[in-house]
Automatic annotation (TrEMBL):
Domain HTH cro/C1-type as annotated: residue spans: 12-38
Name of the protein described by the UniProt record: Helix-turn-helix domain-containing protein
Species of the source: Acinetobacter pecorum
Gene3D superfamilies for the chain: Homeodomain-like
Length: 67
């Protein structure tokens, strides 16, 4: 998944741009720009935080699906 796909996945899970920003450290304006193909990258640490958040949501979905 690229950055945009990760953001869109999290948005489809009900997270707002602000929530994604707060949980990853990526500025809300950058989250918006990523969604709109105006920004293609973020710092390594923020990208890693985004990866962790996507992983958490994916694991939660798997747990719910197996219940």
């Amino acid at each position: 998944m690229n950055l945009k796909e990760k953001i869109l996945f999290l948005r489809s899970q009900g997270l707002s741009q602000s929530e994604i920003s707060n949980r990853t450290g990526i500025a809300q304006s950058s989250v918006s720009k990523i969604e709109n193909d105006e920004q293609l990258d973020v710092s390594y640490s923020k990208g890693a935080a985004l990866d962790r958040l996507v992983s958490e949501r994916t694991q939660q979905n798997q747990i719910l699906a197996s219940a």
